């Protein structure tokens, strides 16, 4: 946008170089003995979902409310690295975007210059929600910049309940069958499955007592998440409701593997073993599952 308006602009360097970064000389006052901006009141530092702490030495060159960040949540909710993902996982009905002051030495604690509420689309996942919030965030930033003096004059401190959106790591994708219900597992998949597929540990108990049991295996799962699909009422699936969480049953009619969870039953669309490729749960059952005997996921 700056280029289209013939405004001087420059992008921040990669993170490893950020600590020692100084603006180019064209932005600095040549008469000053210390680094100072040539025109601080008309110079802005803008970031969007910037997951790294900007050095205070750089921020201090700017008037505080000239350093702005677009954050994809309604601050102070979901401060941190993964607000979109955790809003989906927690089943929020609405979310939003914020334009905030870049706080010195802290993440996502600056004054607010603008916010906009966004309704959560049904069955939203990260890949569908992220571009929606990116567009709304860009529009909000443009609105703030068009009325910058007014937005700065009306900037307010963050108030309300604070929550944090920690960086997503692989362990967040581990299924805990005795604590997670079917709805929660589907939201977890929608929120972080693009980055880390859900995974679990598979234990097998051979039907033949003379056979040696195999060591537990880690497998990845893609769960069925189609509202038009209903859990079948076949005998093996109906029996799951009386078994402990993690118990499994295969439905030959739909060729689908089902797993008992803390509340309800989930269908498995695809399975991936260590070093393998994704296969349908019916194909996996015919090739691997039926040979394992009784199975439990933990």
UniProtKB/TrEMBL annotation:
UniProt superkingdom: Eukaryota
Record-level Gene Ontology MF annotations: methionyl-tRNA formyltransferase activity
Domain Formyl transferase N-terminal positions: 44-145
Gene Ontology CC terms, in alphabetical order: mitochondrion
Gene3D superfamilies: 3.40.50.12230
Stored Pfam families: Formyl_trans_N
PANTHER family for this protein: METHIONYL-TRNA FORMYLTRANSFERASE, METHIONYL-TRNA FORMYLTRANSFERASE, MITOCHONDRIAL
The protein's name in its UniProt record: Formyl transferase N-terminal domain-containing protein
Organism expressing this protein natively: Microbotryum lychnidis-dioicae (strain p1A1 Lamole / MvSl-1064)
């Amino acid at each position: 946008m700056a280029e289209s308006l013939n405004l001087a602009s420059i992008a921040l360097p990669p993170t490893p170089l950020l600590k020692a970064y100084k603006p180019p000389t064209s932005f600095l006052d040549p008469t000053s003995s210390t680094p100072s901006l040539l025109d601080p009141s008309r110079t802005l530092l803008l970031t969007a979902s910037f997951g790294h702490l900007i050095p205070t030495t750089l921020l201090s060159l700017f008037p505080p409310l000239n350093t702005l960040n677009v954050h994809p949540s309604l601050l102070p909710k979901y401060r941190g690295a993964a607000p979109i993902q955790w809003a989906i996982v927690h089943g929020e009905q609405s979310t939003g975007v914020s334009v905030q002051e870049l706080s010195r030495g802290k993440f996502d604690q600056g004054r607010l210059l603008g916010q906009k509420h966004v309704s959560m689309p049904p069955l939203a996942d990260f890949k569908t929600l992220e571009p929606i919030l990116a567009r709304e965030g860009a529009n909000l930033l443009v609105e703030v910049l068009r009325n910058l003096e007014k937005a700065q004059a009306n900037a307010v401190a963050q108030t309300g309940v604070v929550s944090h959106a920690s960086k997503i790591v692989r362990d967040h994708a581990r299924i805990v069958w005795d604590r997670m219900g079917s709805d929660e597992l589907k939201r977890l998949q929608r929120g972080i499955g693009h980055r880390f597929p859900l995974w679990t540990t598979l234990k097998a108990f051979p039907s033949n007592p003379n056979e040696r049991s195999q060591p537990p295996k880690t497998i990845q799962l893609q769960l069925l998440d189609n509202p038009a699909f209903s859990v079948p009422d076949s005998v093996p699936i109906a029996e799951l409701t009386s078994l402990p969480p993690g118990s499994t049953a295969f439905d030959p009619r739909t060729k689908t593997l089902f797993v008992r969870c803390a509340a309800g039953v989930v269908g498995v669309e695809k399975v991936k073993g260590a070093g393998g490729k994704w296969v349908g749960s019916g194909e996996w059952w015919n090739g691997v599952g039926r040979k394992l005997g009784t199975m439990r996921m933990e």
